[in-house]
């Protein structure tokens, strides 16, 4: 154990915890642990006070409630053998109660009204908070990434669907019941495409990684010759065309790929206009897999938003940019949020 990792041992941390509150009562350590629980993988990182990842691990996500909790305990044990942490933050895609302890619903996980924080604290002796994964990512970006210069920031995670989070005057806005900012399910097309949420015409059905693929497939069916040219340009079989293939072909000027991106760009602009009308943010951050190709569509999407938002000529535009921390943002944010909340309680 080196000098950096030996601020205190795991045993010391366990002894210092107050059993009634789960809070550390001794000297603090400069590290916290952030865990991102996805439907396929669990990724965990120890994060220092500057937002740097100093160690990490990953494993597959089990399918049952009890096995999932046991896997999280194992991850915590693995990372804290030689490096103590003050607190643990768990990021999850789902509804999290305002007390940041209970996962009320997670569509890709077995948790339903699950007291995740209390169970993990009971089994590890560490204080634990749970947060929505996009909220955690937004906090990470606000503290250490691309969101720090903004006062009121909307973070959009463009992936399989659209996740969102609001940072208002330096604080996460979570709503009255902890489920604010379900922006991906704002209806943009009455009686439009069906959404897994049970509604129709949700924004994410037109502006997400899934929507991009579906638009590609639909247009390819209408114009197989053009889609075949795209497949050749992207070096992908026609049946395997995806967002990455569209981006590759669009960079080469492929007309079919550019038409697919134009549709996506329009709907992103529609959503950005709605966001500015509702929240009036100074900054909108784009994260998630689709944001990796933002150079292909961002300028056009912001132009669409400028045309559609209310009173566009008489108001300032939000700055729209790509987030900086990538896939690690939710882990960094969860760890720092846990540390920040623990410090506030002391």
From TrEMBL:
What protein name does the entry list? Sugar kinase
Alphabetically sorted, this entry's keywords are:
Kinase, Transferase
Similarity field: Belongs to the ROK (NagC/XylR) family.
For whether the record's keyword set contains Nucleus, the answer is: no
Which Pfam families does this UniProt record tie to the protein? ROK
Q: Where do the TM regions start and end?
A: none
**Which GO terms of the molecular function aspect are on file?**
kinase activity
Question: InterPro entries of this UniProt entry?
Answer: ATPase_NBD, ROK, ROK_cs
Q: Which domain of life is it from?
A: Bacteria
